[in-house]
Write a structure and sequence with these properties.
Largest sheet: 7 strands, mixed
CATH architecture of the largest domain: 3-Layer(bba) Sandwich
Distance between the termini: 45 Å
CATH topology of the largest domain: FAD/NAD(P)-binding domain
Structural class: alpha/beta
Order of helices and strands: EHEEEEEEHEEEEEEEEHEEHHHHHH
Bound molecules: flavin-adenine dinucleotide
Number of strands: 17
Helix content: 25-40%
Strand content: 25-35%
CATH class of the largest domain: Alpha Beta
Number of helices: 9
Number of domains: 3
């Protein structure tokens, strides 16, 4: 049996972000960390995008940055500069490679290829993990393993952000290189919120069809929508699909928490996927910083989640209710939010960075009766349908 101070389950976004944040703390306090993942060499294709005001974070591994976004709905096309923000895309595999190389230099950190199949809290407050290969013991475990099926029996308000993306190469690009098509709602919006998301990279373009849907759909549907979209833009044979990615991100009012006080869920499993947008990257960075600050301040981590964002959680759950109940109206509401407010304010709000006064201004530009109704429902029946 191997014993560590800390174990991180999962060498993905949140696991490696937390390990990197912990690195100095481990050295300064002579603490040991083990990172466990079934596979350290391959990582499923993922492009992580986010907007930030920080000077070029991950500049060395960013695929590209943009300073404009477009929102399109019906006849409305909004081209918006996003300064002081920059929209950044990084490749998940490069992020992972970089972090693993960086962490390999730290003598307090070790790695184990294994799949955890059981987690048990022991009497003496240690956690015991059973893997397919070995058993491990730690004081605290940070667990990023997550399976969307875990939410299938949840009865509260919930949608899935489901998407399929094609990376295409073509002689002629798909539009303006300087601009991200953040939400192109010019597609059917009947039973689910639906949009195309386009990232024009220098040598290829990522086109995604995304649904905010209450049931997980067949992949074929996404392929048909993407093929129709591309057929509309290109002559037959004028583009090649060079790669693909797909995903399902929870947009849920479920309160992610651990069943064991010494196992702290992190990343998507720890509530970092924003319920109203599915964006996770920024929130996983913040969660890691909060955990390390608590350790440095010698605060107990017992039973904590580190992803709560106070009033923003309430806003997210209210907005999620509207998306859930009125998918047919939601595209217009989101477009209106961008049309009637400075983009900087909207992006700040979506990053949980606005002040209450800024939020009041944003809300006043939206259908007030609808928002009041669902805010009240959320107050009376938190999370419940
Ligand atoms: C295709 C795709 C694109 C996305 N794009 C964006 C984006 O643009 N912007 C954004 O903000 N968010 C995006 N997301 C959402 C989110 O950022 C990612 O899902 C992110 O990877 C979540 O980080 P995580 O650490 O929670 O999980 P992961 O990065 O998936 O890491 C979990 C790790 O745990 C390991 N693991 C699982 N089970 C076990 C087990 N039993 N034992 C040991 N290890 C285990 C896995 O192998 C994996 O390495 C995207 C998601 C997907 C799927």
């Amino acid at each position: 049996m191997h014993k560590y101070d800390y174990i991180i389950i999962g060498a993905g976004l949140s696991g490696l972000t937390l390990a990197a944040e912990l690195a100095d703390y481990l050295l300064d306090n002579n603490k040991t960390l083990l990172i466990i993942d079934p596979d350290f060499t391959h990582f499923t294709n993922r492009t992580w995008s986010f907007w930030t005001q920080d000077p070029a974070p991950y500049a060395d591994i960013s695929l590209q940055t943009w300073d404009h976004i477009r929102i399109a709905h019906g006849r409305q096309e909004l081209w918006k500069p996003i300064a002081p923000f920059t929209y950044v895309s990084i490749d998940g595999s490069s992020f992972r490679r970089q972090k693993l190389e960086e962490l390999a230099k730290n003598p307090q950190i070790s790695y184990q290829q294994d799949t955890i199949v059981n987690r048990m809290q022991q009497q003496d407050k240690l956690v015991s993990l059973k893997g397919e290969q070995h058993t491990y013991i730690a004081e605290y475990v940070f667990d990023s393993s997550f399976d969307i099926q875990q939410l299938k029996d949840y009865e509260g308000v919930q949608l899935y952000q489901q998407f399929v993306g094609y990376f295409i190469r073509s002689k002629r690009g798909l539009g303006n290189q300087k601009m991200v098509d953040m939400m192109d709602f010019r597609t059917e919006q009947k039973e689910a919120i639906a949009f195309f998301y386009v990232l024009p990279f220098k040598d290829q373009t990522l086109v995604e069809y995304t649904l905010f849907t209450d049931t997980i759909r067949e992949r074929r549907l996404f392929e048909e929508k993407l093929e129709a979209y591309l057929a509309n833009k290109f002559d037959p044979g004028a583009y090649t699909i060079v790669d693909q990615e797909e995903g399902i991100i929870p947009m849920s009012s479920y309160r992610f928490r651990s069943k064991h006080s010494h196992i702290i869920p992190i990343g998507t499993a720890g509530g970092c996927s924003k319920a109203s947008s599915g964006y996770t990257f920024t929130f996983a960075q913040r969660q890691a910083k909060r955990i390390v600050r608590s350790l440095q301040a010698k605060k107990s981590l017992k039973g904590k989640v580190f992803s709560g964002s106070g009033r923003f959680d309430f806003y997210d759950r209210t907005i999620l209710r509207i998306f859930y109940k009125h998918p047919e109206r939601s595209a217009a509401i989101l477009t209106q939010l961008f049309a009637l407010n400075p983009t900087e304010q909207v992006l700040k709000f979506l990053n949980n960075e606005t002040s209450i006064w800024e939020e009041i201004k944003l809300f006043s530009s939206l259908p007030i009766p609808l928002f009041s109704k669902y805010a009240l429902l959320e107050l009376l029946k938190p999370g419940r349908k």
